[in-house]
Design a protein that fits this description.
The chain is α/β, with parallel strands linked by helices. The chain has 2 domains: 16-103, no CATH class; 130-230, no CATH class. The protein has helices spanning 16-30, 78-93, 96-103, 138-141, 165-184, 206-210, and strands at 35-39, 45-49, 130-133, 154-157, 189-194, 197-202, 228-230. The protein has a 3-stranded mixed beta sheet with strand order 5-6-7, with helices on one face. The radius of gyration is 21 Å and the shape is globular. The N and C termini lie far apart (51 Å). The model is unreliable at 223-231 (pLDDT under 50).
Amino acid sequence: MSSVRMPIDGVLDLEQSEANALAVEFNRVFGDAGMRLFGGRAAVLWCVFDDMLQVETHDPETVAGHDPYGFQPTGVDGPRLRRLMSEIEMWLFDHEFNRLRVSKARAPITALWLWAGGPANTAMPTVSGWAAGRDPFFSALGAEQRFPREAAAGVVVCAEQPGSEAWVDVERRWLEPAVEQLRSGRLARLDLSAAATRFSVGRGAHLRFWRRPEPWWKSFEANSGEPHGIQ
């Protein structure tokens, strides 16, 4: 092979039971090497090392569509982390875990991308408002399942692609109630962000915004680095 690329849709989701099972198997194989894997809230996997690593890593979302070679861990402990990631690939290559996923017509997990990190005992910041969605940071601050009835500042992180089948549920659970609160005046502003593109919808703008000829989320396809304010 002359090159290897991570597919655009190569960052996969796990079910909670899968994350927990993978952590158990990982610890059985690698647990004596000074590291442990945990299945956290929203099926996020956390790898905890006995010693703090001095390493620079990259968010896997930035690797999608590219050759991962240039995004591998660097720094004093970069070689250790790269070796571990290679060993994990070999471990997963023909694992029963993946045979089960394939039998359910789901993509196999061929690697675990280790990135970010910090001291395990770091305290979470105090925040006002609420949070929801599948995100390593915001899911630790809250786990709302429906839009709160009482108006307050909040953040929802949605991994689903706008326009997909799963997005219908996202709109029903989060966006439609937010628009209703915008109409009633209980909500002052609604911000929608995707990468470098952001729309800010005020109380007087929501009707035009939601009645565009094309679906509103098509506006995010314009790859502009400047925020777009809808007045």
